[in-house]
Amino acid sequence: MGAFDGLDIAASGLTAQRFRLDVISANLANVNTTRTDAGEPFRRQIVHFRARQGKLPGVDVFEIAQDKTPFPRIYDPGNPDADEAGYVRMPNVNSITEMTDLISASRSYEANITAAGAMKEMARKALEI
Amino acid sequence: MELGPIGPLPAAIHRPRTAVPAAGFSDFVDGLAPVQGSAGDIALPDRGTIRLGPAAAASARDARGAILKPLEDFLGEVNTSLNNAGEMQERLVAGEDVDFHDVMVASEKGAVALQLTMQLRNRILEAYQEVSRMQV
Predict the structure, then answer these.
(1) Which of the residues A7, A125, A129 would you substitute to probe the B interface, choosing the one with the greatest number of B C-beta atoms within 10 Å?
(2) Cα–Cα distance measured from residue B91 to residue B84, given in angstroms and rounded to the nearest whole number
(3) What percentage of chain B reaches a pLDDT higher than 70?
(4) Which residues make Cβ contacts (< 8 Å) with residue B57, sequence separation at least 6?
(5) Which residues of B touch A2 (CB under 8 A)?
(6) Nearest CA in chain A to B122
(7) Tens-place pLDDT, residues A45-70
(8) For residue B120, what is the nearest residue in chain A, using CA coordinates?
(9) B88 forms bridges with which residues in the sheet?
(10) pLDDT digit string (tens) for B51-86?
(11) Chain B partners of A116 at a C-beta cutoff of 8 Å?
């Protein structure tokens, strides 16, 4: 039914922004993680979106990319992950950046909710004719 | 009184002349294509029989199909939509990994589709009552 395309498009945006929120949460949760399976500190993850291919527009999660920014080094000789000089490589996660991204994702989610709500209202109003 | 053959009539003209039963919509639609009697004659209570040509009877049957088929298709779609919403809700309460907004969108689709069905039903019933009140 073509009448619900708008809802499906808004739903794709909701799914995408919710996924982005998940990734941001993972970044925030690992803001102090100095050890991962890869043998290095946690690397910040970035969600890449792509416009949906095909007839119905919308958005899809394209990939989760790794932030290539170098790890900041802090002096913390007591840390078990410190090198011989006493420096520890910390995750390249900046909690301020993550918080602004979080707000952005939250607001984008709300925007998609508003779009879906408008679509719903239009359908209901049309049924009142 | 016997009217002569009046040949094929446009559906819009001969439809209201059918003897409309008071039972229900499906009977009404059945009445559009009278199959009893010979070659689509239409019996009127007070005016005898209108003889319709075979083409008129066939077009009446076509009209019935033209009304009912899309309606059945649409009801099938509405049903699918409602089933989908119910299934999503079941999966959510069963603890599966379902996004809330997907459940809500599916429910909303089902609700709007059902409302549209009710409005269509109202319109069809209105049309039926309009026809059943018509003076012949």
Answers:
(1) A7
(2) 11
(3) 59
(4) B33, B34, B35, B39, B40
(5) none
(6) A127
(7) 999 999 988 878 899 999 999 999 99
(8) A127
(9) none
(10) 556 676 677 777 777 777 888 888 998 999 999 999
(11) 101, 105, 108
